[in-house]
Amino acid sequence: xxxxxxxxxxxxxxxxxxxxxxxxxxxxxxxxxxxxxxxxxxxxxxxxxxxxxxxxxxxxxxxxxxxxxxxxxxxxxxxxxxxxxxxxxxxxxxxxxxxxxxxxxxxxxxxxxxxxxxxxxxxxxxxxxxxxxxxxxxxxxxxxxxxxxxxxxxxxxxxxxxxxxxxxxxxxxxxxxxxxxxxxxxxxxxxxxxxxxxxxxxxxx
Length: 205
Description:
Elements: H1 2-23, H2 29-48, H3 54-63, H4 68-92, H5 104-127, H6 137-156, H7 162-170, H8 179-200
């Protein structure tokens, strides 16, 4: 099940970033899309192989590196992840949204999802036993923030970090009245990422 959960998460954030950057008219969508794919491959490669693509799963199966019993579950996880991501992106960028915090529920969702993504990547590339000694963790972490800023920055401001939220409030870049949005969403995303990491890596105490 941990492999299928990993495929779901990676495909979700790939499609979610595509949807947000395109629907949100980001300046350079391909940069964010490539970035999020890269970091999710780093984060999930040691668990599922990080396909995030039914065609890749088929190719890996035909190559002999994916068990026959995993092909359909991989596809199901990928399609479910893509479908839910599409609904989430449409919700965040429905017509009429404008301004730094156009919708508190949308900002909560945006901050939660990409704080989850950030913490999920950090835990997998910088703390997991099977990725110990790697030389890419800084790049993976930085690109997760880059992808998030492109994807949902217009919705929430793209903090993904309670300290950043406090800092931008002090600087007057965001009103103090919305600080709770960042604190709630960021800490909830971090807790969810920790839970998923423990579920996917039961032997990595």
